[in-house]
Design goal:
- By secondary structure, the chain is mainly α.
- It has eleven helices and no strands.
- It has helices at 3-11, 15-51, 55-68, 73-86, 89-102, 107-119, 123-136, 141-154, 157-170, 175-187, 191-198.
- Helix 2 (15-51) packs parallel to helix 4.
């Protein structure tokens, strides 16, 4: 009997128990790694469907991935997007909530949840999420444009124009900011400002 075998015999006099523990650990490891692989396969399929605009198929694949591994940030986020694109805003919000719980510093999750609230006419919640997205990523152009839209819908035109101006200052290449700002000026009766922005 070699030294290693003697040491094992002394430390673990019940070799059968040790053998069963090791087999159980190896089996668990295989199940976990296989489950992760299967979850990734479903997640990849879901993303392919999402890119093709096949939202029901995407939701099905992301759901399968989450049944295997419920803590996948991307699967929650992308399933939320699929629900959002389908117009199921009430179903998108819980997925964005979970994505935020998993990764609370992802500005896009706040931005997308804000869009879902906006589409449900909950401008206060949308405004709050856009604020958080800006706090995380102060150079996020769409967060400023979106917050400006929420401000406009809440009746705060000055704040809306300020946000559109901030987005234009960050990047002058987003026509949405110019168009939104022009509309605010137009509805305020400042037709000259509106016309000069659009020309």
């Amino acid at each position: 009997m070699n030294e290693t075998a003697k040491l094992i015999a002394i430390l673990f006099p019940h070799r059968e128990i040790l053998k069963n523990i090791l087999l159980t650990l190896v089996t668990l490891f295989c199940l976990i790694t296989t489950g992760c692989k299967d979850a990734s396969v479903h997640q990849d399929r879901g993303f392919d469907h999402l890119e093709k605009g096949q939202y029901d198929k995407a939701i099905s694949e992301f759901t399968k991935a989450l049944e295997i591994k419920p803590w996948i940030f991307e699967a929650h986020y992308n399933r939320g997007l699929a629900y959002y694109y389908k117009g199921d805003y009430d179903l998108a919000i819980p997925d964005f909530n979970t994505a935020i719980a998993i990764n609370p510093i992802d500005a896009d999750s706040y931005l997308c949840r804000g869009h879902a609230y906006y589409c449900l006419y909950d401008y206060d919640e949308a405004f709050s999420d856009y604020n958080k997205a800006i706090e995380i990523d102060p150079r996020g152009v769409y967060a400023y444009i979106s917050r400006g839209n929420a401000c406009y819908m809440k009746g705060d035109n000055d704040k809306a124009i300020s946000d559109y101006n901030k987005s234009i200052k960050i990047s002058p290449y987003y026509p949405e900011a110019y168009a939104s700002r022009a509309l605010v000026y137009f509805y305020e009766g400042e037709y000259g400002c509106s016309r000069s922005i659009l020309s």
